[in-house]
Amino acid sequence: MWDESVFRRLFAAMSPDGILTTYCAKGVVRRLLQSIGFTVERLPGPPGGKREILRARKSAAL
Questions:
Q1: What is the rounded distance in angstroms from the CA atom of residue 62 to the CA atom of residue 60?
Q2: Cα separation of 44 and 13, whole Å?
């Protein structure tokens, strides 16, 4: 589902300080988001579900 072209389009379409969250917490996805310009952090997943999720922010400075 997630690939570089999708993330690049999302980054371009997002407003400054936009936030993207995803249940996919794989390292390859995290590194790809970071390479495009997102600030990425791992967060605890929902109770009874996934262990971790990712939150990616588009910095207004970018």
A1: 5
A2: 27
